[in-house]
Design brief:
Elements lengths: L5 H21 L6 H8 L3 H8 L2 H22 L10 H18 L1 H8 L9 H17 L5 H9 L4 H9 L5 H18 L1
Helix pairs in contact: 1-2, 2-3, 4-5, 5-7, 5-10, 6-9, 7-8
């Protein structure tokens, strides 16, 4: 694998920080290549060469955050990372995933609705495998495979965007409901 030049890495970090700021202020609809380039202090051509287009830039934002999140639950400190008991890890994972989804909801909504099965694959498969493993450790007799899907379903970006945008549902309420579901699956089940 070829190593990224130092100046290219610095530009990438500046571009992603500028894009994150714009998305935080105005949502994904406000993401303009020209504005990101200006905010990052790079040329528009640099942006297009590196990311291709606006959706490529959006996916880069998702990817950067996703790598941080996966590192946290794979090798970070407990309870999210290794070292805590399975139910505590699953609870920490679901809470952190709820926060992670809410933080980039506009971007994830765009990504998850790009195609009929766009939500599934890479990151979802990693989440599912992790959660199924933890459920299986806590309750070996449980159908951990299907229970993991049931626990991940409320965190689909279209559903979460709908619920957070209407009806007074909050991130805290979603986390509390996921805690209750998890308890029912692994403690009371």
């Amino acid at each position: 694998m070829r190593r990224e030049r130092t100046d290219a890495a610095r530009n990438r970090a500046k571009i992603l920080a500028a894009a994150e700021g714009i998305v935080a202020a105005r949502g994904v609809e406000g993401l303009s290549m020209a504005e990101v380039a200006a905010a990052a202090g790079v040329g528009v051509g640099t942006l297009y060469r590196r990311f291709g287009d606006r959706s490529g830039l959006a996916y880069a934002l998702i990817d950067a955050r996703e790598r941080e999140f996966q590192a946290a639950f794979i090798e970070g400190p407990p309870p999210l990372g290794p070292g805590a008991e399975p139910v505590a890890r699953a609870r920490a994972f679901l809470g952190a995933l709820t926060d992670r989804t809410a933080e980039q909801l506009d971007l994830l909504l765009m990504a998850e609705t790009a195609a009929p099965l766009a939500r599934f694959g890479g990151a979802y498969d990693a989440y599912h495998a992790h959660l199924a493993l933890l459920i299986g450790q806590a309750r070996p007799e449980a159908d951990a495979f299907c229970l993991a899907d049931a626990l991940l379903a409320p965190l689909a970006a279209p559903l979460l965007a709908h619920r957070l945008g209407t009806g007074g549902v909050t991130v805290a309420r979603v986390k509390a409901a996921l805690d209750r579901l998890l308890a029912g699956f692994v403690i009371e089940g």
